[in-house]
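Tol-Pal system protein TolB
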Amino acid sequence: MIPSLTLPPRKDGRTRRRVLLALMTLSVVLLAAVATWAPARAQSTGPLRIEITEGVIEPMPFAVPDFIAENAAAAPYAAGVARVIAANLSNTGLFREIPASAHIARIGSFSAPVQYADWRAINAQALITGAVEVSGNQVTVKFRLFDVVSGQQLGDGLQFAGSADSWRRMGHKVSDAVYGRITGEGGYFDSQVMFVSESGPRENRVKRLAIMDQDGENVSFLTDGSALVFAPRFSPSGDRILYTSYESGFPRITLMNVATLQRQQVGDQPGTMTFAPRFSPDGQSVVYSLSIGGNTDLYVLNLSNGQRYQLTDAPSIATAPSFSPDGRQIVFESDRSGTSQLYIMPTTGGEAQRISFGQGRYGTPVWSPRGDLIAFTKSSQGRFHIGVMRVDGSQERLLTSSFLDEGPTWAPNGRVVMFAREQAGGDPAIYSVDISGRNLRRVPTPGPASDPAWSPLLP
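Tokens:
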């Protein structure tokens, strides 16, 4: 018996909260080997591999013909799943799709032998084939990945099952599997992005929290725009978010359950402003800024018992804190040296070490999920940049440059950074770039958008 994932139907945006709840609470392993067509070998050691480095990478040419519709009801989904996969892989900049118009071979059935010579003739190095079957409201997607050069299947075939409205998510799952097999690293396609959706005139902007798939699809709104909101942050499990709201007239940190939209203020203290929150890696605590009497310091709040302790105590502004993945350190920005710079200190408090020493001002540091890099915003000589540096401040590398780039957020695999960009006189938009500075691309949103926050991979 092949285990599979069953997702609830998503008929329209109004069911979004119920769907999210189901997605976040899934405990069943999604991937399942298809025993009837799995290859004899467990994993290919052939030449199909992309070594991700910081140098120039020639995209790997691949082909993904429309998936086979194994019954009439599957026809609406067969091509769509293949297009989701093609777009995901192409958007990484690591892969280049060979269009269907160039294909020589045709895939007539899922089990048909691969005509490797035909695919080599068009210079395809990887081939993804698949099929879709629909039974009632249940959609099953299966795929295989082939190393065209060596003429071998790469890894076992896999299949995913779910309701009809989860077909795009199954395409993301296939994309993650293909990406992982070829690069040897985890993917990031089955994830979401929280952001601030903006509308209205500049002097009276309406800002709403919104959530979408990482490729810009399936947008829904979590707040109604009656209060300004900014800087949303996902919990490590993706089921909660923190953000700063002006609902009370002052900046206050709000905790929201993504599925139910229930919210509560945290770290509230009369006469103060609280902002810039971020979860600890275990999701049990929040580090944030609290401004009182004109001084802004960092605090850590235990969400379970409400206990709070002060991390910094200096006559300067300390803000934008971010935990290291092991939870032992915090990187933050402070102007204690006269200009805004980046510092690291133990989570338990103690002396902070400055790590940024280049020209200009540094802010909004975010620790990579890999733990090896810190992404930041830098302003220098009238330009804004998104950059990365080692945690000791070495090997600073600027990835972007524009009128205003700010607020980086990491993909779950630590290979891509998303951020907000605003051109002079223009509206903000969300962009992504990989950590080598290549493959800068705009992420589609319904309108002006800022403050992106990338979720972990969905369960």
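Residues 1-45 have pLDDT under 50 and may be disordered.
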